[in-house]
């Protein structure tokens, strides 16, 4: 394997091994690099068994037709389908894919805004008819999910420890939401009320570690207005003026101070200018 | 704690490495060779793998066999793949050949991450792939993939 870029040749054997680990757009790009990879991808089912599409460009590109074309390569053996932000994919298309690939055990469709809860129920029902193999279902971001939809899905899936849906009924507000458990064995809330399980509206959690915050203890607000627990607050670097940190997700908002490794937050930066 | 039995592994370029049998068995290929082996199953040839790569593979197996529950296993793995691309590719190939799933997953996922967001041309450059399509084939591909242009 040469480092000299003028010495191009056949792809190293390891690149064929990497194919099953590539998400869709990268797979399609690989198929266009040279004839041997193109042949490998067109003649082999293995790289297509787990399809992951993250359609996060400014405009969604994957339409129903394209998804059908791609899933036709799976020869009915698709094991997992992950569609993130594929806002053009419709219920009918999802149903067709599922109908043609009854062995799917993982279905994730977060932020696929053209899909409806009814469409998902129809797809899961179809999978059910071929022995329940579906272990994971993620539907956060699908609009208009109700308690009844969730109950239907629960009964279709025979959920246990090994299988799950990401959206659940919050035990506190009774709404279908993403529900989180406290990572601590015991916390103030558990000691006082017996459990620490709820959606983000009912129980505030540290953005970094997920520990519950705001129950009797002081809460620590980051410069980005996310909540932090005391331990994470202490560890993160802070604004030189107001001493608030940014959580790691919003680190890009730090305004660098020229000639120093410190920063000030956006709010303080605005005040100075 | 270490068993007294050791195995010698011999790479394609003749380098030999003496390892505990337990460590060697982390490779299912070696395990199979030993179990179906004959009289001399204390030296095993690994002709698909060079000495440099084999030494790294052994380092991985040692850590995963001797301290599988250690807290720093994850950071060991993260640091283990901070190597240059050629080494990574050799590791992936070796782990496939030697049937070491954990290492195959680790090295393949690391290489897969290097593809993120790259165009066809960038992939060719990074991995030294020659474009051997005919102009007609290229045109065909361009049409098929026109929906996927970077916008």
Characterize the biggest β-sheet of chain B. Answer: 3 strands, mixed
Main β-sheet description of chain A: 5 strands, parallel
Number of helices of chain A: 10
Percentage beta strand of chain A: 5-15%
Helix content of chain B: 40-55%
Question: Which stretches of chain A are low in confidence, meaning pLDDT under 50 for 5 or more residues running?
Answer: 1-5
Which key terms come to mind for this protein?
heterodimer, A: about 270 residues, alpha/beta, 10 helices, about 30% helix, globular, disordered N terminus, B: about 150 residues, mainly alpha, elongated
Tell me what you see in this structure.
Chain A has 10 helices and 12 strands. Chain A is of the alpha/beta class. In chain A, strand 4 (136-138), helix 7 and strand 5 (164-165) form a beta-alpha-beta unit. In chain A, helix 4 packs parallel to helix 5, helix 5 (91-100) runs parallel beside helix 6 and helix 6 packs parallel to helix 7 (147-157). The radius of gyration of chain A is 24 Å and the shape is globular. Mean pLDDT of chain A is 87; it is low at 1-5. By secondary structure, chain B is mainly alpha-helical. Chain B contains 8 helices and 3 strands; from the N terminus they run ββααβαααααα. Chain B has helices at 21-24, 28-36, 51-66, 73-80, 85-97, 101-113, 120-127, 135-144, and strands spanning 6-11, 16-20, 43-46. In chain B, strands 2-1-3 form a 3-stranded mixed beta sheet. In chain B, strand 1 and strand 2 (16-20) form a beta hairpin. The mean pLDDT of chain B is 88. Classes of the chains: A alpha/beta (273), B mainly alpha (151).
Helices and strands in order:
The complex is a heterodimer of chains A (273) and B (151).
Chain A: H1 13-18, H2 24-31, H3 35-43, E1 50-54, H4 64-71, E2 80-84, H5 91-100, E3 106-108, H6 117-128, E4 136-138, H7 147-157, E5 164-165, E6 167-169, E7 176-181, H8 188-193, E8 197-199, E9 220-221, E10 227-228, H9 230-235, E11 255-256, E12 263-264, H10 266-272
Parallel strand pairs in A: 1-2, 2-3, 3-4, 4-5
Antiparallel strand pairs in A: 6-7, 7-8, 9-10, 11-12
Helix pairs in contact in A: 4-5, 5-6, 6-7
Chain B: E1 6-11, E2 16-20, H1 21-24, H2 28-36, E3 43-46, H3 51-66, H4 73-80, H5 85-97, H6 101-113, H7 120-127, H8 135-144
Parallel strand pairs in B: 1-3
Antiparallel strand pairs in B: 1-2
Helix pairs in contact in B: 3-5, 5-6
